[in-house]
TrEMBL record:
An MF annotation (GO) of this entry: ATP binding
One of the Pfam families matching this protein, by short name: ABC_tran
PANTHER family per UniProt: MALTODEXTRIN IMPORT ATP-BINDING PROTEIN MSMX, TREHALOSE IMPORT ATP-BINDING PROTEIN SUGC
Record protein name field: ABC transporter ATP-binding protein
Domain ABC transporter stretches: 5-235
Keywords of this entry: ATP-binding, Cell membrane, Membrane, Nucleotide-binding, Translocase, Transport
Amino acid sequence: MSHAVIIKKAVKKYGNFTALNGVDLEIQPGEFFTLLGPSGCGKTTLLRMIAGFNSVDGGEICFDDKVINNLEAHKRDIGMVFQNYAIFPHLTVAENVAYGLKAKKCPKDQIPGKVEEALELVQIGQLKDRKPNELSGGQQQRVALARAFVIEPGVLLMDEPLSNLDAKLRVQMRTAIKKLQRRLGITTIYVTHDQEEALAISDRIAVMKEGNIMQVGTPEAIYKKPENTFVAGFIGVSNFVECEVDGKNPEAAVLNIKDECSITCKLKKPFSGKGIISARPEQLFFDESNGLPGKIVMSTFLGDFIEYEIELNNGQTLQLNEYTKDVQTVRPDGENVKVNFDINAVGVYDAATQEVIS
Ligand code: ATP
């Protein structure tokens, strides 16, 4: 049965260095949950604490309502898939998958059937008698997946399982993993530093930075409503533009940008002072009547959209994407333009706290 994984104020220290700084998470049974963040932010550390490979220096790790801080790894109801597959080179594909079942004392007569079923699930049934060195990287990763699934764990933990594969295979395998996870409904915690992979595969994502959780949300919420400038900058492309906010009336706050452009937006509560606008390339548009003056320095036609690099008067560059279905022609390099913001879509942040205020 799939477990909920509840993490309460989890702390991990390596000597004086705090790798996890009081992390709180609630992962639902059957959920596909991803830990995403730059190298060194503590993703693997947290995953290994959930697996039981790392001690817990503060707080609690629970499966459902049971605290498992001190439960040995092999007694936790988990399956694990690593970046380097960690399959046994001297065993065949079928023997690799059977290994975990034997260790779990599965009745002998049930093992061949379960192995066959698991190999069919990851579509490598025909390779069952091969040794790992006779398999491609993608096939080896499927063996590792089958071996993790076959023991029907309550929680499946995956640490960058696709990072050794080439780009095309990575995309194929992530779709395969997502489908399999949906079908089996196993609570899955997945570690990656690849934001596109995280957006594509997850029900929800936790974005981490330096041992802290910066935001938890669905891929859509993380992309469209970043709660701070770190998440806005880490996920997708963001154009950050400084502004002066006059928001005594939060219903009609005025954002003044470099005395060159002023726009009105809604804020959550009154705020006046230095602000930052974060705009995705598709949230900028050309507007001759009101906008930041600049010049096109590069236009790139990419089929469904045109990517423009625009240099503002102060030297800052912005990326603006225009969908080709909405326009007739590509604007030439060197053209003087004005750039405005889709104010209902962009995020506005307090420059001091870097937290969202819109
Ligand atoms: P990556 O994407 O590079 O794998 P990560 O987010 O998984 O990064 P962790 O491996 O969890 O990061 O490491 C978090 C921090 O803890 C890093 O700064 C790392 O150097 C440090 N760290 C990890 N393991 C140890 C250890 N055994 N001793 C000391 N410091 C460690």
